Structure formats: C-alpha cells, structure tokens
C-alpha cells in the first residue's frame, strides 16, 4: 500500500513538472479559464439594450399621438431621434442606421380612441440583433397595456361603468411579469453560468490531451518508451494524474464560479459550499474523459481538432440555447455522456435560482456516474497501452 501511494505521488510530481514546463498546457490550464470568462462577459455587456434610436411617423398630429410619442421616448429601451414626414423617409433613416426601429401612428388615431374603436400603431423593428427586437417589443407591449388601461379608466370616469360595460367593450387584461433568476433579463446573466461550466471542461480536456500528444511524440522518438514516464500501475497512474489536475483546477474553479459572477454582477443566489461540491464531480469526470480521449491523440496539435471542434456542439447539447425536450433521441443520448451537459443544468439552478445541492440531485448524481464510467475507461486504456518497464 505504501508503494502504491508512493507511485501516485511520483506520477503526480511528474505530471506537475510536465504541466509547468509546457507553454501550450499552461495556456490551456491557466490562461484560457482566466481570460475567456472575462472576454465572454465583456462581449455580452451591457446585458440589455438601452436608448435604441427610434424614428416616429406621426400621421395623426394630435395631443394623443404626442402623448404616445413622449411615453415611447421615456421607455428605457427607446430614444426618439425625430419625426419622419413619411414611412419612406423613415426607411431611409433606417437604411443609414440613424434609427433601428420605426413607429407609425395612423391618421385618425385620436378619433378612434374617442369612439372606443381600435387604433393600430405599427412598429417596424430591426430583428438582425435579437436583443434590440426583444427589448423594444416587450417595452412597447407593456406601454400599450398601460395606455389601454388609462383610456378605459377615462371612459369609465366620463360615462360611468354601467354604461361603458353596456357598450360591449372587452375588459383589459392585466399582466405582471416576474423574472426569476435573471432579474435584469440580461443576456450575459442568462448564458454565462452555463458557459463557465463548458470552459472548465474544455480547458481541462485540451490540456490533458495536449500532454497526451507530447507523450505520444516522445514514444515515437524513443522506440515506444516515454523516457519521462513513471513505472506505476494503471490505477496509480490515473489517480496521480487526477490529483495533479485537481490541485491545479480547484483554485481556478473558485475564480470561475465565485469571482467572475461577483466581478460582473451576474446572478449569485447559491452558496459557495454548494458550488464547490457540485463542480468537483464535473472536474473529476472531465479529467477522466480527457484521459479516455487520449487514444485519439497522436500529436500535440490533434488536441485542438478533437476538443475545439466539439465546443459548439457541446454548447447546443447542454440545453442552454436549445431545450432538451426538443432534441432528438440520438443527440439527447450523446448529451447525457458529456459532463458539461449536467454541469450546465445543475449550476444554472444553483447560481441563478438559488437552489440547494439537494434540488440538483439528478445532475449531481449523473456527474458522479460519468466520473465512474470514464475512470473505468481511462484505467482500461492505460492498462492496455502500458509501456514496458
């Protein structure tokens, strides 16, 4: 038993030396998880659209239409840049990027309101950037509901509620939006908790497979023997390497899951202990997955082809940008064997919704099952490829 623990220590020490003497591995293990979260979050900041230029085509030119325009200009997502004489002129403003939306108020807008008829205000919005379209459409809808309530209240005050009800007008439908987790409805707050888990997995696998590529190149140059290898059992080999990677990544995990949300005011409703307990099996399963993927790596550069290519695929399979129930059976099965899939689903609930570790028991147990599965595959591959003493 003492000999086995000594072998684990020697493998761990050897792996530390290989990591800190390889510039490529240092890039993936340290620079990538340090810089990528900052770069991604800065790209998505500011999280919501504010003061988007809007042109108004007012064909009514009445006090009611001017009141509507002032209300539009007061919206947090809109800023009225001016009145266009016609819709054709507004299109020219849009083509020259002087505005990103056009509001057309019809002729007879005031008269239709006075007669308790429906007045249609048209909104033309640039949908090339979904954030602009979503923010302005949501605010305009809320403004429409507020105006409708005011108009109905004025009618009730003038003619009385029984008479107004006898006119057959439909009652207003009140809405109340309560945003859970992502209270600001910002894109970074929505997507970054999941991307953080994917960054941890992909950077780990990239560094591990690059180390494997270096071992493969040394074996080819030395008749099938790695001169920097340690004579240890397969189990001691994978455990020693696991200890090395965990000692490196635990501090990086604290930086990624605690400091990054604090730096950028992302949702942070959970507890530090739950974060670390949940991410730990993600790190273990990602380490063993990287050791399993070594069989496909014959050169250092191969790691980029094996891992970087799969990053976008893993992002879609995680259910972050496309719901899991809408994914077909084959892709859902593939997603279930990727640690980041369960890491994204569980960590988003912890970070944004304030769930406890008990509430994310399903993804947590799946991560431990994947850790056991990939530990077995890594042990079998190391045992099969074990070099002669």
Automatic annotation (TrEMBL):
Topology relative to the membrane: Multi-pass membrane protein
Intracellular or extracellular location(s): Cell membrane
Pfam families documented for this protein: ABC2_membrane_3 (PF12698)
One Gene Ontology term of the molecular function aspect: ABC-type transporter activity
A GO term from the CC aspect: plasma membrane
Keywords: Cell membrane, Membrane, Transmembrane, Transmembrane helix
InterPro entries recorded: ABC-2_transporter_component, ABC2_TM
Membrane-crossing residue ranges in chain numbering: 20-43, 190-212, 242-264, 276-297, 304-324, 364-382
Main location group: membrane
UniProt domain ABC-2 type transporter transmembrane: residue ranges: 25-380
Recorded superkingdom: Bacteria
Name of the protein in its database record: ABC transporter permease
Lineage, highest ranks first: Bacteria, Pseudomonadati, Bacteroidota, Bacteroidia, Bacteroidales
């Amino acid at each position: 038993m003492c000999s086995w623990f000594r072998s684990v220590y020697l493998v761990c020490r050897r792996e530390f030396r290989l990591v800190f003497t390889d510039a490529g591995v240092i890039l993936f293990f340290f620079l990538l998880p340090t810089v990528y979260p900052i770069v991604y979050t800065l790209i998505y900041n500011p999280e919501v659209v504010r003061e988007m230029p809007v042109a108004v085509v007012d064909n009514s030119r009445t006090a009611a239409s001017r009141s509507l325009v002032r209300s539009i200009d007061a919206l947090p997502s809109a800023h009225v840049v001016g009145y266009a004489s016609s819709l054709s002129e507004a299109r020219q403003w849009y083509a020259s990027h002087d505005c990103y939306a056009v509001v057309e108020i019809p002729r007879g807008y005031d008269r239709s309101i006075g007669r308790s008829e429906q007045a249609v205000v048209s909104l033309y919005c640039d949908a090339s950037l979904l954030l602009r379209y979503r923010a302005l459409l949501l605010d305009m809808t809320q403004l429409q509901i507020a105006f409708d309530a005011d108009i109905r209240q004025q009618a009730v005050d003038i003619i009385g509620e029984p008479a107004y009800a006898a006119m057959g007008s439909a009652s207003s439908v009140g809405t109340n939006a309560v945003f859970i987790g992502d209270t600001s409805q910002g894109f970074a707050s929505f997507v970054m908790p999941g991307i953080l888990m994917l960054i941890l997995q992909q950077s780990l696998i990239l560094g591990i497979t690059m180390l494997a590529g270096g071992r493969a190149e040394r074996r080819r140059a030395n008749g099938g023997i790695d001169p920097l290898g340690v004579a240890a059992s397969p189990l001691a080999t994978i455990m020693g390497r696991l200890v090395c990677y965990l000692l490196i990544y635990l501090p990086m995990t604290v930086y990624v899951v605690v400091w990054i949300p604090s730096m950028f005011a992302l949702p942070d409703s959970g507890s530090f202990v739950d974060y670390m307990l949940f991410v730990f099996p993600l790190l273990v399963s990602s380490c063993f997955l990287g050791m399993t993927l070594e069989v496909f790596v014959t050169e250092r550069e191969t790691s980029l082809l094996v891992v970087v290519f799969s990053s976008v695929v893993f992002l879609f399979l995680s259910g972050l940008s496309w719901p899991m129930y809408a994914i077909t059976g084959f892709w859902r099965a593939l997603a279930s064997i990727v640690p980041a899939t369960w890491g994204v689903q569980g960590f988003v609930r912890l970070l944004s919704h304030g769930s406890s570790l008990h509430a994310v028991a399903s993804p947590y147990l799946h991560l431990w099952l994947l850790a056991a599965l990939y530990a077995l595959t890594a042990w079998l591959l190391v045992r099969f490829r074990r070099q002669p003493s």
